[in-house]
Amino acid sequence: MDFQTLKEYLPFLIPLIILEISLSITALVHVLRHPHYRFGSKVMWILIVLFIQIIGPILYFTIGRGEE
Amino acid sequence: MNRYLAFFKKEIIEYIRTYKLLIMLIVFAIFGITNPLIAKLLPEIMKNLATDGFVITLPDPTAYDAWTQFFKNATQMGFIVTLILFSGVLSSEYSKGTLINLLTKGLSRTTVILTKYFSMVLVWTICIILCFILTYGYTVYLFPNDITYNLLFSVFCLWMFGLLLLAILMFSATLTKSSYGCLLITGIIVVFFMIIDIIPSIHKYNPISLVTDNMGLIMNSIKVSSLYLANLISVLLSIIFIILSIVVFRKKQL
């Protein structure tokens, strides 16, 4: 993909990237501040949240998050 | 009325604190942006996939492709995420025992069910509107010349099916103690709707036609009036499921 096509899709990519990053960061902050999980360890959840885009943070908040 | 408002406020705060609202908003916003984008990029992707001697040609993408993506994503991933997030609507309260305090202080069980249902409906409405606005904006930007028919009615049908689905979820949450059981019963009821859809004469009355006929509506090959009955039945079924869940919940041991 050359630079011209990339530029054409910028109005799509910028909001998408912002959304994905904000989701990752919220999940990451939550992982670090609440060290109790239903299963798995801190390192595992940090990796999942940071490297599996969109699905990772959703998985963490729905099934990984421990009770407060 | 005051009790409804207070409990409603508690529900919304819970959605914010447990990040449910945030996840719903972000997921639906991502769908809203990617729908037109995938429609636009699909021919390019297919071109790159083609190896020698094997050429896939697709017609130029139109606004219809973007809306196909919208209805596909909203009815599959959208509903799945919504149901999974809301599946703990009562089971989390059972397991923590947080409802017992409120109920012994005089909060009626009807209030609990109705408020929980309407707060889920509120979140669903906001999300579907957000997704629709984003898809609409980008579709107009990418495919300015394409005409679509009955767009608002089509999305309204989708929203209406969402209401029915949440009512079913509420009902199954009162039947079981765990969130997985709740998901399972909801799934079984939806599959039942899909199975009876095989009989053509029922299709007109079946609520599932609200989410299968959307593209026909947009291309103007299906008349708007053919879906009025399905809408009506969907509303009636939602009311019946909510009443049933109130009845079951009143008898339930917490």
Structure commentary:
The complex is a heterodimer of chains A (68) and B (254). With 68 residues, chain A is mainly α. Chain A has one domain. Helix content of chain A is 74%, strand content 0%. The model of chain A has no long low-confidence stretch (mean pLDDT 85). Chain B is mostly helical and 254 residues long. Chain B has one domain. Chain B contains eleven helices and no strands. In chain B, α6 packs antiparallel against α7 and α7 crosses α8. The radius of gyration of chain B is 20 Å and the shape is elongated. The model of chain B has no long low-confidence stretch (mean pLDDT 89). At the A-B interface, α2 and α4 of A face α2 and α3 of B.
List keywords for this structure.
heterodimer; A: 68 residues; mainly alpha; 4 helices; 74% helix; elongated; B: 254 residues
Brief description of this entry?
Chain A has 68 residues and is mostly helical.
What's the layout of helices and strands?
The complex is a heterodimer of chains A (about 70) and B (about 250).
Chain A: H1 3-8, H2 10-33, H3 42-51, H4 55-64
Helix pairs in contact in A: 2-3, 2-4, 3-4
Chain B: H1 2-17, H2 20-49, H3 63-86, H4 91-96, H5 98-104, H6 109-142, H7 151-175, H8 179-196, H9 209-212, H10 214-218, H11 228-251
Please give the number of β-strands of chain B.
Answer: 0
Strand content of chain A is under 5%
Q: What separation lies between the terminal Cα atoms of chain B? A: 24 Å
The number of strands of chain A is 0
The tally of domains of chain B stands at 1
Low-confidence stretches of chain A: none
Computed over alpha carbons, the radius of gyration of chain A is 15 Å
Whole-number radius of gyration of chain B?
A: 20 Å
Average pLDDT, all residues of chain B: 89
How many helical stretches of chain B? Answer: 11
Going by helix content, strand content and strand pairing, the class of chain A is mainly alpha
**How helix-rich are the residues of chain B, as a percent range?**
over 70%
Helical content band of chain A: over 70%
- The shape of chain B is elongated
The overall pLDDT of chain A, averaged over residues, is 85
The largest sheet of chain A is: none
Order of helices and strands of chain B: HHHHHHHHHHH
The SSE string of chain A, one letter per element, is HHHH
